[in-house]
């Protein structure tokens, strides 16, 4: 028999969401997250994304690894949009074609995983991307 009383959470019994919402202002109550969504769901972004994939139809990471026929499905921002200090800065990063790479889904997931785990910084990623053109 369980002799411990369960104490309800202070929010009236509703579960408290842990995780990304409580960790940073980026994912906090609103402003920056809403700005990000506004940018990513805009007609301007959709047009740029479509044009970029049309110009770069194959995954740039796979091509660098010698796989020349992997189609690009997604567009990755080398410097994340969230690094912009305000909405104008976020737009500058989002719509700069020099800040984009076309990737297959697997490489896009891998690129974001490396950033989350701290294996690479965005500056290192930018330098690696630029080296292929020098």
Protein described:
The chain has 134 residues and is mostly helical. It has helices at 20-23, 31-40, 43-55, 60-64, 87-94, 105-117, 122-131, and strands spanning 74-77, 100-103. The protein contains 7 helices and 2 strands, in the order ααααβαβαα. The protein is globular and about 40 Å long. The longest helix is centred in the middle third of the chain and has 13 residues, at 43-55. It has a two-stranded antiparallel ribbon with strand order 1-2.
Q: Note the overall shape.
A: globular
Assess the beta-strand content as a share of residues: 5-15%
Taking all Cα atoms into account, the compactness measure Rg is 20 Å
Assign the structural class, choosing from mainly alpha, mainly beta, alpha/beta, alpha+beta, or little secondary structure.
mainly alpha
**N-to-C terminal Cα separation, in Å?**
71 Å
Poorly predicted parts: 7-29
Helix/strand order: HHHHEHEHH
Mean pLDDT: 78
Give the strand order of the largest sheet, numbering strands 1, 2, ... along the chain: 1-2
The major beta sheet can be summarized as: 2 strands, antiparallel
Helix content: 40-55%
What kind of oligomer do you see? Answer: single chain
Number of extended strands:
2
Given the structure, what is the number of helices? 7
